[in-house]
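Appendix C. Worked example: ABC transporter permease
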Amino acid sequence: MLKNYFLVALRNLRHNKLFSLINILGLAIGISASLVIFLIVQYDFSFDRFEPDGDRIYRVVSDNVYQGNTGHTRGTHALLADVAKKELTGADLVVSFRYYNAGKLVVPGNEAASPSAGPGTNPANPATFHNPKHLIFADEAYFKLLPYQWLAGSPATALAEPGRVVLSESRALLYFPNQPLNSIVGRTLTYDDTLTAQVTGVVRDFDSLQRTDFNFKEFLSLATVLDNPALRKQFYWDKWSATSSDQQLYLRLGKGVKPAAIEAQLKAFCNKYEGESEKKNNFTETWRLQPMSDLHFNRDYGNFNVELADKPTLYGLMLIAAFLLLLASINFINLTTAQGTQRAREIGIRKTLGSTRRQLVLQFLSETFLITLAATMLSILLTPLLLKAFADFIPTGLHFSLTQPFLTVFLGLLVLLVSLLAGIYPALVLSSSKVLVVLKNQAYAGTAKTRGAWVRQGLTVSQFVIAQFFIMGALLVSKQIRYMLDKDLGFNKEAILSFQLPYRDTSMLRRVYMLDQVKRLPGVRMASLANDVPFGWGWWTQGMEYKDGKKDIQLAMEMKAGDPNYLRMFRIPLLAGRDLLPNDTARELVINEAAVHALGFRQPQEAIGKMINWDDRLMPIVGVMRDFHAHALSFEIKPMALCRMMNRANDLIVTLRTKGEGGGHGEDWQGTIAAMKTLFASTYPQDEFSYNFLDESIANSYNGQQRISRLLRWATGLTVFISCLGLLGLVIYVTNRRTKEIGIRKVLGASVTQITAILSKEFLLLVAIAFAIATPLSWWATHAWLQDYAYKTTLSWWVFALGGGALLLIALIVICLRTFRAATANPVKSLRSE
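Step 2, the predicted output written as structure tokens:
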């Protein structure tokens, strides 16, 4: 019986090639998009799911509030780990580690391993690696937290003493190529010319299925820090006032222990050890527990050089997948029911010969299953193309392979789900026809306002609601992105690049030397030393106090440090007063307009000469600069001060000459950059030269919004295409049902234009209804999205009108193509049976 179902299904698909092709194509688009989205979602939600007792592992994070400004950091105080080990109850494992930014690593007697080593090098000489990544100071507790497999050494003793290091397998093979792992144990590594560590173990790297945010490759013994006064001072190890994102603390809670109980103890520790400091400095700090399952998604706290996922984006992708599958299923339903008039006699004959409704339902479901199976096979071929189209959303490490067990299970379930979702309604409708009616070929006799007609029209309206929602959303998101890219940020950003000088090198002589040499280059118009460009990634905030005689005003002031060229380079005008005098230390301040208003002044001139207390030092305000956007437009302009604190100025910012200024674009710029790279290499031979153009950095800061925009454009194109296929199905259904009416109208003298208008009016009304429903929905969604931006575009009426008009035009073209064909058909053929 089952074999017969499939044979009949294959015959019907072969006899209706056009409908079958449209159905397969529509379902293939929905399934392939869903498959890509499933791969992305499954990849991101699989992070750190392999650790034993992972549901009991938490990271201790810090939240702080100062002058109404909230801050978050993934780190804590170094001393908190000692307190937790001694005083905290309810945790069966306390793990503390410290991230380490090494500038240089030397492997003695192993020059053959050096990336820069060439042919003929002497293996007896050391190999040097600049800026090795993913280093931490840890102890044996770290390896109890994560299930590393040890290839050499012992986890109990490898990090027990100072001056010890454990390497991952990949890092061991990099430093000691072609050497057995056991022979590496006992070798020494030297970090930054001052710290020497002996290799005491090697662990296997996590495989591709063990996805984790713990991407560390070298593990130095934590005892090295504890035993080294210079490192303790460098890391502020003994100060409760120092919180660093590099200092990590993890807790594995005992079974049955609630996170709230631990957080209550952490609050008590904060009051005990930081209470006086909080009162003195007028800030509050709270230590919280962050679940391990949240590490890969929480951007407030972040991680170490790991590409984080965004849960709202993932949920949005899942919603898009559901919409596309729903649209494809609606499209299938409309096309199948439209085709039902051609199978009316077949249904009647089958019922006359004894077929039950159950058998007919199974017959139609088997046809749906074959179409879905063909669509799935096509989607497998389309998936690599869609992975390229969604390249901005594809995480590093994600790959598509049918050998993945979870993928095979997902495809199998998807085939069954889509077959049932798309096939059950047409099967029930087509199998419910009465025998006498269908044998007269009157399966759809009666008024057009039947329940079936309302269902089909409702499905079509829902398709176009979704399509118009995506069109309007895509237009408004693009409008906001264009607004952000085109908005005047309050400073010059053209032809400006910056590169960072090594922060470990505190020599002002070398910094000034680099500045002077760069200024001498022919292609350089101006150069400046500063801590950051105006639109930077970093935040440097200082607490300041102003006494106006009546009350004390305390401000959290964002700081910039720059030399006398800083304001001139970025063309930031002074509204009152003067610029700062040349100096190496902060002795006076220039503030922005936001700070003027926060201090209670109405006009910039009123702030000149007023004294502000900064770290128990009174400093005069000598100038007021115009407000500018120091961060993305999602942040408001906050009070800011410019100072001459040159020990923090390790960014060298350069304005390049443009055409007409003695320099030029293209190769001239590249030549100037090459000269700067040479100067950098001669001054800092152990560091790498890396530069960024300011305008490109600003554009890149909106990459997330750009990705959302591209995603919406793709989703819009797919939804419009599938919706038009659904509309085509309804048009075919109506024109087939009204064939005799069209013939009679033509015989009575109706023109092709009149008949086309009569047939199109009903469908255009459906699109208009969809527009009326989609407009408030899209307005609400985009309005909510724009609330994340302090500076945003307006929700212009023309965006909604353009979206509705574009879809109406597309629908009109689809409708006219089919109705014109029906209107121009020979009426004799349609009336032959009368």
